[in-house]
Amino acid sequence: MSTDIYPMRLQKFLARAGAASRRGSEELMSAGRVTVNGCVVTELGSKVDPLHDVICLDGRPLRLGDDSVCLMLNKPAGYLTTMDDPQGRPTVRELIPAVEHPGLFPVGRLDFDTTGLLLFMTDGELAHRLLHPSHHVSKRYRAVVAGRLSEAEAEQLRQGVLLKDGPTQPAGVEIGESSARALSPRARHTLPAAAAEQTTVWCTIREGRKRQVRRMFAHIGHEVLELEREAFGPLQLGGLPSGQWRYLEQAEIQALHQAAG
Questions:
Q1: What is the pTM of this model?
Q2: How far is CA 152 from the centre of its chain?
Q3: Do residue 223 and residue 158 come from a single domain?
Q4: Statement to judge: residues 164 and 204 lie in one domain
Q5: Does 1 map to a domain?
Q6: Catalytic residue numbers?
Q7: Residues 242 and 212 in one domain
Q8: I need a labelling partner for 247 at 20 to 30 A (CA). Which of 55, 120, 165, 253 fits?
Q9: Residues forming a β-bridge with 232
């Protein structure tokens, strides 16, 4: 192990050791859960020497592993993207080999009702780069929206729209087929004719704001009825069944490193 990278910032060590993402590591420190040589360290930017210091999370020693673990999950609806929920709700932890790989954490989030490709890894540094806006790693979604989506409306998303937390970057939008929407007989009679339809659309973004795709379509007047992430950067969900996971191949991991700069 080379010593020319030491000492390093504690939050960087935590991320590389698979404790959490870079931001998550800062939260662990602020919560007083990290000790260095038996002393709690909460000051962000503190440096450690992994060759000599003993760094622990909740009393458990951490080290920089030589091999990282990366896998993808086809997340079903009805699961929180978190490894622990105080309220006891279903989490994605139940769907992955968390016991075999205790350092695994999700790379970004999918909403409770959103399905599709969710990455997990123990390499916090790579996860940080994949999520950082400066690297523009794309995420592709298949959405089913209420109503018939017009080209003019799609063009608004391609140009970027103004949300409450600021303007969005231009999105890639491909309009698919429109079809009859499944509605109750009463709703079919009370809703406008346009609302009785639904449109399948593919949307590619390079940001990761909370519920961003749903908010983008709501901005142009279309409720998202279904949302599935089909791709993350160079990775495709493919035929992975819902609720199942698989390890990434080495070529896929290399492709992620290239996408993350």
A1: 0.75
A2: 29
A3: yes
A4: yes
A5: no
A6: 111
A7: no
A8: 55
A9: 139, 235
Q: Are 217 and 206 in contact (CB under 8 A)?
A: no
* C-alpha angle 160-165-166 in degrees, rounded to nearest 5: 40
The SS3 assignment for 21 reads coil
pLDDT tens sequence across 102-148: 778 899 999 999 999 999 998 888 888 899 888 889 999 999 999 99
Q: How many domains does the chain have?
A: 3
> Which one, of 89, 25, 79, lies nearest residue 57 by Cα?
25
H helix intervals, the chain: 10-16, 22-30, 124-131, 151-159, 185-190, 212-219, 250-259
User: Counting every residue, how long is the chain?
Assistant: 261
Full residue range of the structural domain in which residue 218 is found: 138-232
Q: What is the pLDDT of residues 172-220, one digit of tens each?
A: 999 999 988 877 776 666 666 666 899 999 999 999 899 999 999 999 9
